[in-house]
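Appendix B: a complete holo record

For completeness, this appendix reproduces one full record from the ligand-bound portion of the collection. The bound molecule is zinc ion. The inputs are the chain sequence and the ligand SMILES; the output is the full three-dimensional arrangement of the complex, encoded as structure tokens. No fields have been trimmed.
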Amino acid sequence: MAIEVQIPGPLRNYTGQQSKVQVEGGTVGEVLQNLKQAYPGIESQLYENDGSVRRFINLFVNGEDIRGQGGIDTSLKDGDKLGILPAMAGGSLGLSPEQVQRYHRHLIMPEVGSKGQRRLANATVLIVGAGGLGSPAAMYLAAAGVGKIGIADFDVVDVSNLQRQILHGVEDVGRPKTDSARDTLNRINPTVEVVAHNEPLTSANAREIISQYDVIVNGTDNFPTRYLVNDVSYWEGKPLVDGSIMRFDGQLTVYAPGFGCYRDLFPTPPPPGAVQSCAEAGVLGVLPGIIGSLQALETIKLILGVGEPMIGRMLIFDGLSFEFRELKLRKDPNCPVCGEHPTITEPVDYVEFCGLPQETALVG
Ligand SMILES: [Zn+2]
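The structure of the chain with zinc ion bound, as generated:
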């Protein structure tokens, strides 16, 4: 028998904006089951993970609360009207109608849902470097609805950046990268708060900046900043989503406090000149797109608390042979920063530590 289900405003994004839909069923429970089959997105709004109807959803048959009748087993006859009343004060979904529309593909995923989407909206992420890695990472995080994205970069856009740094366009050449990044991210998602840290990250300011964020994404391409960000993220207790690229190769891992750090692998930097930078050795334009996107993925997983983050593991990507390999990372009890007897407990002079002349170290 056909029952008219009255769909409240916040749920109409799941029914193609229809306020009333006809659904078959002999009881309230059957109608809801058939409703979710006809409109799959609505399921996570109506049901808990264990299959029970969510507590803030109230149901009415012909205007009468089903709790005064047979509850979910209340029987229905042809032409009955089933009303759905979600709690609205404070927002049962906690999201505006625009947000429900924008994040629809997230909201229908049990791993995200409206709870996860609110987590993303409340999250803060610092992107160190608005370059090849930082570009896709920041853009996907903005699109995903991360509430606040900090961009630490003091460079201006150069025409040679455009081959891979997709935050920036031709008209941005000569502009500060933080300005260009803000414009691009707000064009994708105007609700994201973009904070520009348009200054070099140094021993003097790194703790103050990094401490403001939940997750740190490392998109830097020089050793002094890489060690600085590693050390300070560890001291501030922040997970660090680390990526690096060169030519056709990429690496990705997540350092979480308590699970080691970059110095467990590389206690001291290679001597100056031993490792080429992208500026010297080159990088295929799409490589940072691949690794930076994976950094966005790992960041979102950390925020949502789902899946298995790349903690204690390193992904090695070889784009020429098209191989993804994984290494197990070992925590070093003798690590000078995160080991049992740390010898470095506050920021050092990283330029001197890396044995680099100042101007080399500042290439962003
Ligand atoms: Zn360590």
